[in-house]
Amino acid sequence: QVQLVESGGGLVQPGGSLRLDCAASGSIFSINYMAWYRQAPGKQRELVATITSGRSTNYADSVKGRFTISRDNAKNTVSLQMNSLKPEDTAVYYCNAGGYSDLRGSFEVWGQGTLVTVFS
């Protein structure tokens, strides 16, 4: 089994910063990609940022220049540094990862989600 555990969510004022972390554990051979999604109440889940095993990154236009995704391949972790936060960034943020396990072939897993609230 492969699982993701997220941390770092909380309440922050507009213009503030927050760092989300996600740690993967289990029978992992390799993680091909890791990503952060978010879902606000009444809205569809949207892709925020992705990063490959080679550390190529992509960002949603709404967060480009403000958010930075990074990963530590040795530790199987991914982080999302969020700066200049806006109220519209308020959402539950989910970590997502896909790759290959040692014994079960490919996998795709999701974290439990962590709530980020941007409010004065």
What distinguishing features does this structure have?
120 residues; mainly beta; 0% helix
Describe this structure in words.
The chain has 120 residues and is mainly beta. It has no helices and eleven strands. The model has no long low-confidence stretch (mean pLDDT 96).
Order of helices and strands: EEEEEEEEEEE
Q: pLDDT under 50 segments (min length 5)?
A: none
Give the termini distance in whole angstroms: 40 Å
Principal-axis shape: elongated
Overall mean confidence score, pLDDT: 96
Helices, by number, come to 0
Which assembly state applies to the chains in this document? single chain
Radius of gyration: 14 Å
Q: Give the number of DSSP strands.
A: 11
* Major β-sheet profile: 7 strands, mixed
What is the strand content?
over 45%
Into which percent range does the helicity of residues fall? under 10%
Task: Name the structural class.
Answer: mainly beta
